[in-house]
User: What shape does this take?
Amino acid sequence: MTRIPIVGGEIDVSQLGNTLMHEHVFVRTPELQEAWPGFMGWDEEAAIAGAREKLKGLKAAGIDTIVDMTVPGLGRQVQRVARAAEGTGLQIIVVTGYYTYTDLPFPMKYNGPGKLFNNDPDDAFLVDLFVRDVEEGIEGTDIRAGVVKCCTDLPGVTEDIERLIRAVAKTQLRTDVPIMTHTHAKSKRGLDQQRILREEGVDLSRVLIGHSNETADLDYLMEVLDAGSYLGFDRCGLKIDQPLADQQETLAELCRRGYAGQIVLSHDRHCTSDWFPEEGVRAALPEWSYGFIQGSLIPGLLENGVTEDQIDQMMHRNPQAFFAARRDAPAPADSATATAGS
Assistant: This one.
């Protein structure tokens, strides 16, 4: 049996149920909140109460688990998430890693307390931070990370981004937790991630390349898939880089080509953020809500020839298979048909 840490304990992989693989409960900027308390109207208690209601709504709509992809750099605070999750019945997996497009907040010369010069090209101190989150707990709690995250975006693989990806790879190899990523799909950044992770010895089937619905480049998407990784169609409802109709057609075409067994779905939505006012988000992006996948995407996919079995695969069986994969561990019995009907 494969056990997965969640907020409040752990579960067997068979208990995941319908899973949204890339969401956020809170996105926050701690430095700004310290400097200007209440920045962008942030109210701690109101934010927690509002998040709890939205999480209850997800559970009522048939979602059992979400992966909260909020890491340092996005204001991760797991005790706040735990408070929001109370009484919702929703299972939340939290993650480690770091969110940046360019530079890490650690000077290149840093190599631990009392050391001025970096004699450690492998950034062992950074790996140790991530491993601590996985094996011991986050922020002094017993809430452990079930995923390690890295990012690339339009700036590409900067020196620090490469450090981050290689540290994430080393963390995966030490802890056996899977890797999930942020990418800029239109510039094919997922291929950079796969290349570096492969160089470090990571099994690419343990990697989920995120934000892949933001391109219609089927050749790129199939190159990522054929290397063994999962694709995250995980900005569903968000049409900044790609029209929603095109996103749906791309997903349906991948299913027609036999790739439903390597795709997962999510929104990359937040309950509350201090990055921008919620009313502005709703006005500018009215489809981008926690209800988009079940209310709009799935009905559209079914009309476009995607089967109920493929929907179940992307929402249920693929997340289960992704988390069940472990070195020297067989997949759970009900994942044996994870690629059927793809």
Summary: The two ends are 25 Å apart (CA to CA). The mean pLDDT is 92.
